[in-house]
């Protein structure tokens, strides 16, 4: 009985961990889609976008290229 409850507890922890990872992955994908969309809308203009400024679009987000 004790061994079974340990397995159930580990299984619940694993399920919660996988749910949290899935939510984080989906949030990351949504933010990436928003940045790509902002880049595409304001690509050939000198205007600042909603997420990226003109300088970030021309020099890179972190200014490294």
Describe this protein with a few key phrases.
mainly alpha; 71% helix
Runs with pLDDT <50, length 5+?
Answer: none
Average pLDDT: 88
Please state the structural category.
mainly alpha
**Largest sheet properties:** none
Structure summary, number of beta strands: 0
User: How many domains in all?
Assistant: 1
What proportion of the residues is helical, as a percent range? over 70%
Order of helices and strands: HH
Based on CA inertia axes, which overall geometry fits? rod-shaped
Distance between the termini: 60 Å
Using only C-alpha atoms, the radius of gyration works out to: 21 Å
β content, as a range?
under 5%
Keywords: Membrane, Transmembrane, Transmembrane helix
Transmembrane segments: 12-37
Structure description:
The protein has one domain (3-59). The chain has 65 residues and is an all-alpha fold. The model has no long low-confidence stretch (mean pLDDT 88). It contains two helices and no strands. Keywords: Membrane, Transmembrane, Transmembrane helix. The chain crosses the membrane at residues 12-37.
